[in-house]
Amino acid sequence: MNVSVGIDALSFYTPAYFLDLGLLAEARHVDHQKYLAGLGQERMAVAPPDEDIVTMGASAARPLLDMTDPDCIDWVLFATETGVDQSKAAAMFVHGLLGLGPRCRVVEIKQACYSGTAALRMAADWARRHPGRRALIIASDIARYELCSPGEPTQGAGAVAMLVGANPGILALDDEAGLYAEDVLDFWRPNYRETALVDGQYSTRVYLSALEQTWRHYVALTGRKWTDFCRYCFHLPFTRIAEKGLVRLARMDGGPNPSSDEIRRLVGETLTYNRVTGNTYAASLYEGLTSLLDTAEEDLSGKRIALFSYGSGCTAEFFSGTVMGGYRQRLRGAVHRAMLDSRAALEYQQYEDIMNLPFPVDGGEHVFAQYRTGPYRLAGISQHKRVYETL
Ligand code: COA
Questions:
Q1: pLDDT score, position 256
Q2: Taking the domains of the chain in order of start, what are their residue ranges?
Q3: Residue 1 has what pLDDT?
Q4: pLDDT tens for residues 45-74?
Q5: Ligand 1 binding pocket includes 59 (Cβ within 6 Å)
Q6: Which amino acid residue places its CA nearest to atom 15 of ligand 1?
Q7: What local confidence, expressed as pLDDT, does residue 214 receive?
Q8: d(Cα 282, Cα 111) in Å, to the nearest integer?
Q9: 11 — phi, psi (to 5°)?
């Protein structure tokens, strides 16, 4: 029997602070329109010093525990490229903060922004053989580049948590997926660096060429055309890339470039959240999916949507899924919108101060100032141990 598997519930979290890119444009003497129209970004989320991938991931995941029996969770898979420890998985901290049971596999997965998709596909394959059980996937990242670098306006922070299992309530995944992998250096962060290195123009070219490759593979497996999808969710290092991706697919299908109305219809709702948080790396594609499902006025039940996942370095996957009937009852759109609307705007200098704050590495006792966070915060560092607090 072919059991349907996929996303049963999803929840999004972003820090309570943002920088309006108008202030960044002013500080960098750049035309604000470059950020708004050229990159498609309005604001970027800024994580305060007592927020990290663990607190964001746990905050995203906590509401999902009310939507399933926590004893059914056999896996906690944490996808990130801003890990806090070379050995201990960020998932382990979250497992503790959420009070999950001991009969559980708890690991961290890395391949740049692709790792959330790796976790999702692995969990979905497992779920087919274990109906009734659930995997908790958390994608959580803080995108940071050097001050004054071209990547700076595309920074951001956020997390998406998903429950994955059989007979899902939100999105049933298709089996087929177009894959592509190539060893390139378009974006990377050596272990000794706080900020990522990126050759952004090259990375955009590799992204679009990986899209072509995965699309060719997907079409060979399914025979579908680009017009067979009601919406497209792209990995979003900046939201303008979705338009570039659609144009590329239309050209490959031999059709005319999609009109601006068509682009708006196919990707518009997927960009709403990312436009005001910036890049959330591993979470970005799933933030776009959350944005689509939360904000689309059209009932998407029974409709097929396309997803393109890209992780620099690079691994890419084009895949698809069908939205389940009744999916709206599983969404948390009102909570997500209230969270975004209640964020505090930083002054430019406050942003720079947060970015320049050194992280203590001396093994001493450090208590962190309390900022606005979700239900969890990083209270300090004690003898190289991270100390988390539940509020
Ligand atoms: N008004 C409107 N648009 C403007 C503008 C203005 N005044 N000035 C520039 N633009 C447009 C440019 O034409 C360009 O659009 P196009 O791509 O359609 O040509 C866009 O704004 C960006 O300008 P560009 O000069 O290419 O920007 P940049 O060299 O400063 O860098 C990125 C842009 C995206 C490469 C850079 O922000 C970056 O590296 N970001 C990180 C990306 C990343 O993380 N990639 C890896 C993970 S996938």
A1: 85
A2: 5-390
A3: 58
A4: 999 999 999 999 999 999 999 999 999 999
A5: no
A6: 38
A7: 98
A8: 9
A9: -145, 140
pLDDT at 3 over 80: yes
- Name the residue at shortest CA distance from atom 13 of ligand 1: 38
Side chain identity, residue 212 = E
Ligand 1 centroid from CA 238, angstroms = 9
Determine the distance separating the centroid of ligand 1 and the alpha carbon of 17, expressed in angstroms. 24
Mean pLDDT of 299-327: 98
Ligand 1 pocket: which of 154, 186, 189 to mutate (most atoms within 8 A of CB): 154
Pick one of 2.40.110.20, 3.40.190.10, 3.40.718.10, 3.40.47.10 as the CATH number of 5-390: 3.40.47.10
* Residue 70 host element (H or E): none
Three-state secondary structure call for residue 348? helix
Q: What's the whole-model pTM score? A: 0.98
Q: Are 368 and 379 in contact (CB under 8 A)?
A: yes
- Asked if pLDDT for residue 127 goes beyond 70, the answer is yes
Q: Is 237 in the pocket of ligand 1 (CB under 6 A)?
A: yes
Ligand 1 and 150: CB distance under 6 A? yes
List, by residue number, the catalytic residues: 81, 113, 235
What tens digit of pLDDT does each residue of 332-369 get? 999 999 999 999 999 999 999 999 999 999 999 999 99
288 Cβ closer than 6 Å to some ligand 1 atom: no
Residue 327's Cβ-side half-sphere holds a number of Cα atoms within 13 Å equal to 28
CB atoms within 10 A of CB 259: 9
